[in-house]
Specification:
single chain, alpha/beta, Aminopeptidase, 7 strands, about 45% helix, globular
């Protein structure tokens, strides 16, 4: 059994160093994409033939601090030494390096990268219900009273419009409030441009492609849930279900009985389009950390710390620890579950490549 402390980094630089060392020890071709800010980068490791017909691509760090889990899973897999015969594996580490390094879901511009992949040359998607919630979700001060006030507003909104509409308004993505939650940006971000360049170099030309984006937060504590981008009627969904099993039928459990949000600007949709493979299965894996309401608190605190918190506000260290725990608990049992589940899911993906 893998010791989680040997694969989970305590910070971005340690996680990156472990990934680079494991990739080079495995004989991978290693490519560094320097970020605009010094000492930050997205790194890519490629194993297998560059012209392989079948390829598996995995992404860690789309939501910044959630990248600790994806990084650990990829480091563990590299150290295990298992390789799909005749296929290529492309590992994309810290596609949002600023968020990873600063323990935030967003990037340096408060952009949620997983809402940024829209056509910025056309009118941006609208989310009118978000405007009604913005002030409550983004208070100037954060304390018990503000937390309760936010919950009260959200509860009232849900009572009027339904809980499904509430979840969708908060989570789908919005393009009207640059200081708000799940802001999709007004132009392609550095990570967006970098990922497209990675796809052009390492994914185009594949006939069969499996995409896996590692996330944390939603779902039961320590349990891996697989979200397929395609509806159940789509052939790619059937391929995903055949690969990962009934876990992909549990999406509603992530939202406590409600349908998932109508997300806009998702990274995997853009990556699939950029790759242009004939057969593509695209899935997000969530390792659960907290119930849905508690996860929302983590998002609110993350945003407040970055955009509104006074430098001398009391309790900042405790709030930063709360954010870190929302995305990557220190609990060894949780981390061990992530490693074991991640290894099993990658093994299933490799079986699909070999089939």
């Amino acid at each position: 059994m893998t010791d989680p402390s040997n694969v989970f980094g305590d910070n971005f630089r340690e996680a990156r160093a472990r990934f680079e060392a494991a990739a080079k020890a495995a004989g991978a071709a290693f490519h560094r994409h320097p970020h605009d800010q010094p000492d930050l980068s997205c790194d890519v490791a490629v194993l297998g033939p560059t012209n392989a017909r079948r390829r598996l691509a995995m992404i860690a760090g789309t939501h910044g601090a959630e990248g600790f889990a994806g990084s650990a899973v990829m480091v563990d897999w590299l150290r295990r030494g298992a390789r799909p015969e005749g296929a290529a594996v492309v590992l994309i580490h810290a596609i949002n390096p600023w968020g990873f390094a600063n323990i935030s879901r967003c990037n340096e511009n408060n952009v949620d990268l997983n809402r940024n992949f829209v056509d910025h040359g056309s009118p941006l998607p609208e989310n009118p219900f978000y405007t009604e919630l913005h002030e409550a979700l983004c208070p100037a001060h954060w304390n018990d009273a503000a937390r309760q006030a936010t919950h009260d507003v959200c509860h009232g909104f849900g009572a009027r419009h339904g809980r499904q509409v509430l979840i969708d308004a908060i989570m789908r993505g919005q393009y009207s409030h640059a200081d708000g939650l799940n802001f999709g940006g007004t132009a392609p971000e550095w990570s967006n441009r970098t990922l497209r360049a990675i796809a052009a170099r390492h994914l185009r030309g594949a006939e069969a492609l499996m995409l896996v984006d590692w996330h944390t937060g939603l779902g039961a504590y320590g349990i891996a849930s697989v979200m397929c981008l395609d509806p159940p009627s789509h052939p790619a969904y059937e391929k995903a279900r055949a690969t990962f099993g009934p876990e992909i039928d549990a999406v509603q459990k992530l939202f406590e009985g409600e349908e998932p949000p109508q997300y806009t600007g998702l990274l995997l949709n853009a990556l699939r389009a950029e790759a242009g493979a004939g057969a593509t299965v695209a899935c997000t894996v969530e390792f659960g950390t907290r119930p849905l309401n508690a996860m929302l608190d983590g998002l609110l605190v993350d945003r407040w710390l970055r955009l509104a918190a006074p430098a001398t506000a009391p309790g900042l260290d405790a709030l930063k620890a709360e954010v870190r725990d929302a995305f990557c608990p220190h609990d060894p049992a949780w981390r061990n579950a992530v490693i074991q589940s991640g290894a099993e899911l990658i093994a299933r993906a490799n079986q699909w490549l070999a089939s």
